[in-house]
């Protein structure tokens, strides 16, 4: 009941859901972007556990490395099922699922706009480029945006409620 079905105005998917508060903030950001000539399209939103298992297992079956190396390769850009921020309904992916799109042409304009404006609506990019202060973890995802007012609370709660023993039920 905390989730809203995202209108086709904002997404190219028929099954996109976000938490109500996130969706309201997204609509405000979307309107501002549109006023500035920027097109935002949600290409992925809330994912349940089964969706994340499908993504993970698909990569597990495609990637050629073995064991822990295979898991580390997948973990560069995909979360293990049960650990994805997309489970919370606070995170979504915009326009394309590759960094190259956001490095030239219209994609670069979208990214510049998001970097300059998304915070005004409560959104931030959780997976940024490596630098002197961040040298591990997921690779940068210029497409992935998160609603800080809720995601920050969920992240803290997750660390207290979920243990390694809870992360099961998928390949590897």
List the helices and strands and how they pair.
Layout: E1 3-5, E2 17-19, H1 20-35, E3 42-44, H2 49-62, H3 67-74, E4 91-94, H4 105-117, E5 123-124, E6 144-147, H5 148-161
Antiparallel strand pairs: 1-2, 3-4, 4-6, 5-6
Description:
The chain has five helices and six strands. With 172 residues, it is of the alpha+beta class. The strands form two sheets. The protein has a four-stranded antiparallel beta sheet with strand order 3-4-6-5.
Proportion of beta-strand residues: 5-15%
Strand line-up of the largest beta sheet: 3-4-6-5
How do the helices and strands follow one another from N- to C-terminus? EEHEHHEHEEH
Average pLDDT: 96
Describe the global form.
globular
Question: How would you summarize what this structure contains?
Answer:
By secondary structure, the protein is α+β, with helices and mostly antiparallel strands.
Distinctive features:
two-stranded antiparallel ribbon; 4-stranded antiparallel sheet; 172 residues; alpha+beta; 5 helices
């Amino acid at each position: 009941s905390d989730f809203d079905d995202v209108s086709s105005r904002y997404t190219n998917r028929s099954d996109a859901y976000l938490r109500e508060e996130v969706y309201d903030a997204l609509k405000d950001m979307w309107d501002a972007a549109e006023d500035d000539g920027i097109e935002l399209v949600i290409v992925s939103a809330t994912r349940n556990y089964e969706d994340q298992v499908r993504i993970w297992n698909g990569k597990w079956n495609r990637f050629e490395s073995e064991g822990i190396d295979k898991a580390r390769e997948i973990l560069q850009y995909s979360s293990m099922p049960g650990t994805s921020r997309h489970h919370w309904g606070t995170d979504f992916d915009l326009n394309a699922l590759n960094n190259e799109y956001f490095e030239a042409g219209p994609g670069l304009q979208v990214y510049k706009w998001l970097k300059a404006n998304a915070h005004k609506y409560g959104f931030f990019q959780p997976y940024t480029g490596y630098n002197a202060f961040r040298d591990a973890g997921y690779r940068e995802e210029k497409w992935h945006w998160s609603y800080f007012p809720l995601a920050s609370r969920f992240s803290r709660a997750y660390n207290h409620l979920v243990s390694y023993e809870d992360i099961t039920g998928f390949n590897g």
